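Per-record layout

source: Halosegnis longus
name: SAM-dependent methyltransferase
length: 290
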Amino acid sequence: MPLDASTRELLLLAFARRRGILDALTTDAGTPEAVADATDTDPAVAEAVTTALAARGFLERVGDEYEPTNRLLGFLTKTDVRSVGSLPATLDTIDAWTDHDTDPERARVNRLGEQWARDDQTVRAAVTAAVRAVPDAEHVVCLRDGPGRHAREFAARGYDATVLESPARGDRVTPLLAPTDVRLETGGYDTVPQTDLVFAAGLLARSDDERARRWLAAAGEAASTVVCIEPVRDRSADGALLDVEHRLRDGGRVRPESALRSLFTDANLDCALAEIPGTETVALVGRRVQ
C-alpha cells in the first residue's frame, strides 16, 4: 500500500519533532547547517528535512534563513491552547502507535489544543443531540471539556454551563473560560455537582473500563440524564483501528455497542443510542432507572 502525501507529511513532522529539528527551527536555527549542528543530525538529512518542511508550507525563506510560518504555530506556543491546533496532538497519536514516549505535560497541552480545534459543526451537532434528549434542562455539567467548546455552545443556547476539569488541565484553560459565561470547577468522580444534565464527549473512549464505570456512576448520581458522545466500534468502519489507537494513547477503548450498554447498566442507567448526522459518533443517552 503506497503512502500518500498527507501521510508522508505527518511522518516528516513526526521525524523532525523526535530529532529535535522542530524545536531547533522554532528557536534559533535558521539554516540546515544550524539544524544539523543543534540536533546532531546528518547534514544531508537536515537539508532534506528543512527543504521538505519549506515545500509543505511550514517554513518560509527570509533572506539567507528559514523562518516558521503559521503552520508551525502550534509547535511554537507553550501556553495559549487556542494556538496549538490539532497537529501536535496528531503527532502524539503517531508516537503512541509507534511506542515512542511523549512528554506528559506537552501531551496535556496538545490534547487541549486538539479539543479547542474541534470543528464547529461537530460541536454543534453533539450539543444538539444532548438538547434533544433533555429539552427541559437548564443546567449542564460538561466533564473534561477542556477549553469548553461544548460548554460554550450550551451557554450560547441559554444553559447554565459548568466544565469539570482536572486541576492540571484546569490551570491551562482558566484564561480561556474566565471571560465567558461558563463556570469552571476542578475535581474528579466525587465532585460532580448536582445538575439536570451531565454531558461528555469522548470521555469513555479515553477511559479504561474502571474509569468509565466510575465516571458514569458519578454522572448518574449527579443528574437524571447523562449524554455521552462516543464512537462505537461496531458502527464505524474504522472502529477497530480507533480502539487500538485509544488503548495505546489513553489506555482507553472504543467499545462495541453491547459493552457501552453494559457500562450504562452497571451505573443504573437505561441507555438509548441516537445517531449524530455528519459525524462518526453517536449520542449515548442514559436515564437514571427509578
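summary: The longest helix spans residues 5-18. The chain has three domains: 1-75, 77-117, 119-288.
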